[in-house]
Automatic annotation (TrEMBL):
Keywords: Membrane, Transmembrane, Transmembrane helix. It comes from the Bacteria. InterPro entries: Diguanylate_Cyclase, GGDEF_dom, Nucleotide_cyclase, Rev_trsase/Diguanyl_cyclase. PROSITE patterns: GGDEF. This is GGDEF domain-containing protein. GO terms for molecular function: diguanylate cyclase activity.
């Protein structure tokens, strides 16, 4: 029963989590300036760590390893076809290295892994290039090929009793992989839907192309919606400090790079603290951004902006750009009632707070309540 629960329930959950984190890492590399060779090397190291964990966990829990090719199959199918194909070849060597580290090398098993890797490489290439329209059917076919070739290899490697055990394990791994398909397909479709929403917003002229945030047109629509539907939200205005002087000193191209970088760091930090449905970022023009937070207190927003300050400082320290540093000032206002034009009121009051932050020397984050006190019983 324990083996069944590990193979059929626990491992699919673990592998799905590993796949989601691997997908996030690859997306971050795509927007970074890391060289191609370095990118491949780092991703291979991360894959090796994930594979080592999978092998260790199954070996300790079950007494044997399994799911050794599952990560590579899903990466090649969903995340990166090119990198995934390379992992089919790398996996046998990584598994061999694992057993070498643990002083448990079996030559016949290593040969079996290389055979499976080569077969999967050709089978996945053929299936991906076929005219089969359904994505789920394609990966099911690849998993079926993996199961069949593994069972055939096991027949020549093990004695009859061990083969029966290995056969049952492969069937369970196949069924567990179907569970991974279900979970990861849901995650993948959610990502596709988000991309579609962004593309739709771009087509409708609601996305600022430089920063990837929503523009003022989108803000006007969203502010009306939030004012009518929500009775608790906070608005923050962020303004990059001395940005006009920066443009005069370093030029508008460098200024645009700073805006794009700041926006990316802001979005990455936001995703660490809250769900995307809880906030929206708008570029108001120039170096000014507005963030609308749903059901968040002023202090919660301030804590997030402090974290953003730290991330921004860390980024420029790691980039080793001593010529300049990038800071921002911010004002925050919370509204606690449904009111006509409530978001615009919050923007106006947050802007007054921002002005005070700049007046006090910039590089400061103030809430409206800290500066002016509460305006009425609806605010806190």
């Amino acid at each position: 029963m324990w083996q069944l629960s590990v193979i059929f329930c626990l491992m699919p959950t673990v592998i799905t989590s590993l796949l989601i984190s691997y997908d996030a890492i690859i997306k971050n590399f795509r927007i970074s300036n890391v060289r191609m060779f370095q990118r491949y090397f780092i991703l291979l190291i991360i894959y090796a760590i994930y594979l080592y964990f999978t092998l260790s966990f199954t070996t300790v829990s079950l007494g044997f390893y399994c799911y050794e090719y599952t990560l590579a199959i899903f990466i090649s199918h969903y995340i990166s076809k090119q990198k995934g194909k390379l992992l089919f070849i790398a996996t046998p060597s990584l598994v061999f290295a694992y057993f070498l580290i643990n002083n448990d090398v079996v030559i016949k098993l290593d040969i079996k892994l290389y055979i499976i890797g080569v077969v999967l490489l050709f089978a996945s290439t053929f299936i991906e290039n076929s005219k089969i329209p359904n994505r789920d059917v394609k990966i099911l076919l690849i998993l079926t090929v993996e199961m069949i070739i593994t069972i055939i290899c096991d027949f020549f490697v093990y004695n009859l009793d061990d083969f029966k055990t290995a056969f049952n394990v492969e069937i369970l791994v196949f069924l567990g992989s179907i569970i991974i398909i279900y979970f990861f397909e849901r995650f993948f479709r959610l990502q596709e839907r988000q991309r579609d929403e962004i593309n739709t917003a771009l087509k409708n002229g609601q996305i600022d192309k430089l920063t990837g945030t929503y523009n003022f047109t989108a803000f006007e629509e969203y502010s009306e919606f939030v004012s009518k539907e929500y009775d608790d939200y906070s608005v923050s205005i962020l303004d990059l400090d001395n940005f006009k002087k920066f443009n005069d000193s370093y030029g508008h191209l460098e200024g645009n790079r700073v805006l794009a970088t700041f926006s990316q760091i802001m979005q990455d930090t936001m995703k660490m603290f809250m769900q995307e449905s809880e906030y929206k970022i708008f570029r108001f023009g120039g170096e000014e951004f507005v963030i609308v937070f749903l059901n968040k207190r002023s202090q919660e927003v301030k804590n997030f902006l402090i974290a953003l300050e730290v991330d921004l400082k860390t980024y420029y320290e790691e980039e080793e750009t001593p010529d300049y540093k990038v800071t921002f000032s911010a004002g925050i206002k919370r509204i606690r009632e449904k009111t006509f034009n409530g978001v615009n009121l919050a923007v106006e009051l947050a802007d007054k707070t921002l002005y005070k932050a700049k007046e006090d020397g910039r590089d400061r984050i103030y809430t409206y309540e800290e500066v002016f006190g509460t305006l009425n019983q609806f605010e806190f």
